[in-house]
Amino acid sequence: MTTRHYSPADRLLMSVDNALRTVFGRPQTTERPNPAAHLPEADLGEQERRHVARLMRINHTGEVCAQALYQGQALTARLPETRRRLERSALEENDHLAWCEARIDELGDRKSLLNPLFYAGSFAMGAAAGLAGDRWSLGFVVETERQVEDHLDEHLAQVPERDERTRAVLEQMKVDEIHHAQVARAAGGAELPAPVRLAMRLVSKVMTRSVYWV
Ligand SMILES: [Fe+2]
Ligand SMILES: [Fe+2]
To answer: Measured between alpha carbons, how far is 22 from 14 in angstroms, rounded to an integer?
Structure first.
């Protein structure tokens, strides 16, 4: 792989392009296949289907936020190595984004209308974490991924066992998020202060509560 050097203006344009693709278009993904690809569709009741679809809408918005956090951090990260790692994780988050969107479509539901808002807020938080320095920026990734892991467990507990297609996506996402946290910790991520961790949990509660309905 070759390393290219971009000016700050290039990076800004790339950020705008990423934002538009994430919220309105088809983001660039890795070659990994959808984990649900060869699994049978379950016969879900109307209420179950709607509930699972709304959970997947929350997960989709979570991935929009993850994408924005990573892009915001990659813009401000000081060390090229840190930036490269964050950009790579962001690409893997795009797989999650595509898999969640595919599942929402299959369940006959729609993405959240609030996605542009959450993208903007998360991008700003990511950029702020990046400005605080790579140690904190990576610590922010560690904590975000840890919280996403907990949240995926909560969803897995609510998705019926026979809905293998949804479960396969959530389970692969969980494996990836654990890996992202490990990468960020190994790269020197610091443990965030408890009040910051609590604030992050509150923000994520606001997101999950609103996106279930809107
Ligand atoms: Fe993800
Ligand atoms: Fe992740």
So the answer is: 12
Radius of gyration of the chain (CA): 17
- For 102-129, what is each residue's pLDDT tens digit? 999 999 999 999 999 989 988 888 888 8
Q: Which residues contact 84 (CB under 8 A, 6 or more apart)?
A: 3
Predicted confidence (pLDDT) per residue in 163-177, tens digit: 999 999 999 999 999
Residues around the ion ligand 2 (C-beta < 5 A) = 145, 177, 180
Residues of the chain with pLDDT under 50: 1
Tokens 């692969």 correspond to what residue? Answer: 172
Q: Which ligand is nearest to the CA of 180?
A: 2
**Unique residue bearing structure tokens 């990046």:** 130
Please give the full DSSP string across 36-53, using - where no structure is assigned. Answer: TTTSPPP---HHHHHHHH
3-state SS assignment for residue 187: coil
For residue 183, give the ligand nearest its CA.
2
> What is the C-alpha end-to-end distance of the chain, expressed in Å?
41
Nearest ligand, CA of residue 89? 2
CA of 110 to the centre of ligand 2 (A): 23
Take residue 179 and report the two structure tokens written for it: 């890996």
The greatest distance separating any two alpha carbons of the chain, rounded to the nearest whole angstrom, comes to 53
Rounded to an integer, what distance in angstroms lies between the CA atom of residue 116 and that of residue 202? Answer: 19
Structure tokens that stand for 202 in this block: 């509150």
* Residue 95 and residue 63 in contact, taking contact as beta carbons nearer than 8 Å: no
Q: Which pTM was predicted? A: 0.86
